[in-house]
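Mods, move this if it's the wrong board.
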Amino acid sequence: KSIMEPLRGKNILIAGATGDIGFHTARLLQGSGAQLFLTGRNAELLQTNAQQLGLLGNQYLSVDLSMPEAGEKLAKAYFELFPTIDILINAAGIGIIKPLEQLTEEDMLNSLQVNLLAPYRLLKAFLPAMKTAKKGLIINIPGVLGKVPMAGAAAYSASKYGLVGMMQSVREEIKRTDIRITNVFMGGVNSGFWDTIDLRVQREKMIQPEEAARTIWFLCQQPASGVVSELVLQPFNHQAI
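Not the wrong board. Structure tokens:
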């Protein structure tokens, strides 16, 4: 008997299912028999991804989690389908990388909205159900820049450090439950993240999204007796942590 937690029949919400990591994670989890609910900002891409996985129309909903009511709207649709939530995966994020002189207030607010307020809204919407069940797993991806900043990442690191701090605080609030929190510090993933960033990067030497997704899939199967509080995954030739 495998000591790994079986995923068959587990109810899993994936935010950022329109991103490379989110989509590949969804595919792996579905292959293991999990029941999925997907969300993402790009409605068209979300529908395409959901249909590729053979999901039904009530198994996904496009919301913009940088909007205040989005969390409640998502929770309403989710709980109409599934009575409980076993795993919440937040693979959504935005990467605005530029020197401080060029970093506008809008850039800063945008980074905080997507990388910090969106996970906060997800928590507000789904943590109560986990508290009722006294169990669950929450996975966020602060990334390497949530631990070790780099030049140009003032807004990004501020938002990701905030995410780490928020999750550490919440961890203290759920100590009497079996709710587990995992932060994934992933660096250099060859995803759409880099498409808009003006840096010379060797994308072929980065972690591929499929590999990054495999890590999250692995975390979802950890036995409930312990908690992987942190996982670091970086390209071999670019280790910052």
